[in-house]
Task: structure prediction
Amino acid sequence: MKKNNFKNIFEKHLDLNIELTKKTYLNYKIILKLFNFLHKKIKNKKNIYIYGNGGSFADASHFVSEVTATYKKRNRIGLPFYLMSSNLSSLTAWSNDIYFESYLEREVQSLIKPGDVLILISTSGGNRMSKQSINLLNAAKLANKNKIKVIGFLGNNGGDLKKYCDLSYIVDSKNTPSIQENHKLVFHIICEMFDIVY
Result:
């Protein structure tokens, strides 16, 4: 790769993320609201379940590791967050024998109780017409029916998932990597706040 081409890519990537990070200042109130909501649920002995597809699954796993194990504060208590679809035997059995798009819905039915929280991460926000993130849309719909609170960490104007969310943090971008990086930033802010209060 030519040096100038690399420099253009490098600067474009950083400029885009700097722009989105600056926009995050405008979302202070929603991020505080999300934190307070989760804090109250934890205090009320409720569980928090989290899921995303692909890179968003990796982000969900990362977030769960930092709240159940440790972020910065080593003596903070572990918090009741659970990564959904982490049992690969169950996931592959259901996907092979039944239908992948309904497995997350199956977990909502079998694991999550009314009053618990389901966090869904989707850079696209899901779209039924184009069959994007159908598993998340199905799970969110059932969660609403079962009186389970849904939080969305979304991109792309929130997509179809937005209408199922009680609270949502939406990154104003259609660029998947930048949305993922901004989601991680907000997860780390929330972890920092948990380190203070627990």
Notes: The first helix runs from residue 3 to 24.
